[in-house]
Amino acid sequence: MLTFLDPYRGVSFVAVVIRLVLALLLGGLVILVARISYLPATFAMIFKYAFQPQAILGGAFGAGIKAAISQGAKRGLFSNEAGMGSTPHAHALADVKTPHDQGVVAIVGVFIDTFVVLTMTALVVISTLYAGDGILASGSAAGVDKTNMGQLAFSAVFGNQAGNTFIAICLMFFAFSTILSWNFFGRVNFQYLFGKNLKKKHDTLGTKTLVHLLKIPQLQIRPTKSPW
Question: What are the φ/ψ torsions at residue 147 (nearest 5 degrees)?
């Protein structure tokens, strides 16, 4: 029901939920400490497979360069809201003394999300699943794909129940905060475009939010590859 309330209340809720990123980073740090003996092998694998001849040649010709450009663009777009171009909606409404302050916040947000969080996630996955006694150290394994690697990585140290629960809770709140944020973006845009007709504006905003909510179950059953 939060999406039917004042959008600013939803944003306040998102500001609280997003602090779960700290919990995710702390959990990742705990795993890296527990697997610290495998970190040299982890970094060695990263540089080995980034600069081996077949990777260089594959990234230089034909399908290799097509895949590199395609995947790079997709990751750049979806790794953070700056890539999508949607963050100006939120930053423009921030109550700060100078625009410079909010600009710094925007830059730091991209750095934390794209560099810190993604690097931590990569190190956790590689050090637990690929290095040493990891279940993917000798190749592919049944029941392992890119959709559950995070859960498997955290479960390798925290145990199945705790690891799966931790990742599930984080993803639930991150997904819910994304829903609230995009509903907020839509409301702000609509109010800017059609703010003069108040009655029509409020009626249509309610309809838009209802459609937004009805689309959520449909998106849940779509293949995970469809956004990519």
Answer: -80, -20
